[in-house]
């Protein structure tokens, strides 16, 4: 079938827009990667686009040479895995309870969760609560405070509200209790939105560093990757500030090792790479969960 001139023009415009969109989307990441692979002194001069002018791995060597980086990575992986699993279990259980039509306090409990999305106790009361619970300087201070997110509960409850009630009633007639209905019927049907929430929770745990700074700042056995990277960046910025000017810093011994800009970009790649590796495996569920979680009411 011969295509008309209008179809060809449409294809040209469509493909051109897609290429522009791809370039705009990829450019920030390629720029960060180029700076992270560029020499520190050359980075200070600026003007780097998507290719490094003076290729080097010194920035990554500086990060990986930190004595605590390996253990901090292990702690970050452990808190991400444990926090995601326990978070999904706790969130799904709460969402299942308040999604039940026969739960008499359904609206009241849902309202309480919504209120916490707008009003919080603050940093000092939170710290005092963690201290009274004896969670300071423990691994569990990374897990328990974020065990349940009101936003995740609302999203998952909204999805469960759209599931057919007949499924639960049929299971009850067959002798299933609430836990069996939750585990064998509700949870499998909620796979798309659960995969989405898993990604949200995992990214939150992986990127978190302020709780380490607040609760475990001097405990090297409980330090996290993001906290160690933040300390390295702070030290590099302090070194640059202590110099008289940028020109002096560029010719100093510190700049021969690493600069704040190079370190920041290398840190971004190190922190983002695990998420980029995992995301393709959950992308299908992620997009489906976002759409279904948004339209269910």
Q: Number of helical segments?
A: 15
Q: Tell me, rounded to a whole number, the average pLDDT.
A: 81
Quickly count the domains.
2
Rg, Cα atoms, Å: 25 Å
Strand portion, in percent?
under 5%
Q: What gap, in angstroms, lies between the N and C termini?
A: 45 Å
> Class by helix and strand content?
mainly alpha
- The level 1 CATH classification of the largest domain is Mainly Alpha
CATH-derived topology of the largest domain: MetI-like fold
Shape: flat
Tell me the helix content: over 70%
Compressed to H and E, one letter per element, the order equals HHHHHHHHHHHHHHH
Transmembrane segments: 12-30, 69-96, 108-127, 139-160, 181-206, 263-282
InterPro entries: MetI-like, MetI-like_sf
Domain ABC transmembrane type-1: 73-282
Membrane topology: Multi-pass membrane protein
Note down, in words, how this protein is organized.
Keywords: Cell membrane, Membrane, Transmembrane, Transmembrane helix, Transport. The chain has 297 residues and is mainly alpha-helical. The chain folds into two domains: 5-45; 58-243 and 255-296, MetI-like fold. It is built from 15 helices and no strands.
SSE map:
Elements: H1 5-36, H2 40-45, H3 58-64, H4 69-99, H5 106-116, H6 123-132, H7 150-161, H8 165-173, H9 178-189, H10 191-207, H11 210-215, H12 225-242, H13 246-250, H14 253-257, H15 260-295
